[in-house]
Amino acid sequence: MALTDLTGKVAVVTGAASGIGLAMTRRFLDEGMRVVMADVEEPKLVDVASKLEANGADVFAVLTDVTEPAQVQALADQTVSHFGAVHLVCNNAGVAPGGPMLSTTPKDWQWTVGVNVLGVAYGVTTFGPMLVEQGEGHIVNTASEAGLVTTSMLGMYCATKHAVVGLSESLYRELESSPVGVSVLCPNLVRTSIFLSERNRPHGTELTATENATMAPLRESIDANGIDPSQVAADVVDAVRSDRFWIFTHPTTVPSALVRFDDLREGANPTNPYGGSR
């Protein structure tokens, strides 16, 4: 049963203080929703939530580290205490470190998996039963085109976003006969600070020379070619209303993803879907 009428409904958005999360927050407010904004960056969260409230928005900010299950549970408890219910859950918080796979460290993996995979999983297992019990709701998990297409130098990111796609597909199948919808968001380049996410890395913010060399062109590409986050937010609302699982933001995503299946049919080694060397 799709959430066709969003007026008065309650949305929870993680990673809500910037980027796609903030764009979704603003779009949901425009649709007449009330929004719980969760983020790990307290100063930014307080700032944007205060500005939205000053303009009459019905938002509630909750400082949340999605890698901590107790904090995700506290987010759910505070949501129900403040608004009385929750209808739309967007597990959106994410990080995107880069660099050669063989140069990554256990701490890098723990951080990336903690945010990108476990943060989504905790959101699903905490809020999902609530939505099923009330007989209404929708879950949107933010993956990436990197959840369908791999590239070098972003191995940890690709691995975690593939996990989010797999988790979301399984969840969709489990809830298909229930009144709770599931979508997975797979954006390509969007003008956000995702490639500056080392600012929240708990084991230090200094990038190595190799990491800087990897991230610089990615940041330039986002600035030059990224779409505005508001376009992504509009796609999310459309998918929720139509109960659509896949949310793609770029027409190139599906053809790029299908390159893998061409390789499978041909028994070929992995082809670079973006051209150039493998």
Quick summary of this structure?
This protein is of the alpha/beta class and 278 residues long.
Would you write up a description of this structure?
The protein has 278 residues and is an alpha/beta fold. The chain has a single domain (10-266), classed as Rossmann fold (3-Layer(aba) Sandwich). The protein is built from 8 helices and 7 strands. The protein has helices spanning 19-30, 42-54, 69-83, 106-134, 155-175, 209-225, 229-242, 253-266; strands at residues 10-14, 34-39, 59-63, 88-91, 137-142, 180-186, 246-248. Strands 3-2-1-4-5-6-7 form a 7-stranded parallel β-sheet, sandwiched between helices. The longest helix has 29 residues, at 106-134. The protein is globular, with a radius of gyration of 18 Å. The model has no long low-confidence stretch (mean pLDDT 92).
Short descriptors:
278 residues; Rossmann fold; seven-stranded parallel sheet; 8 helices; 49% helix; globular
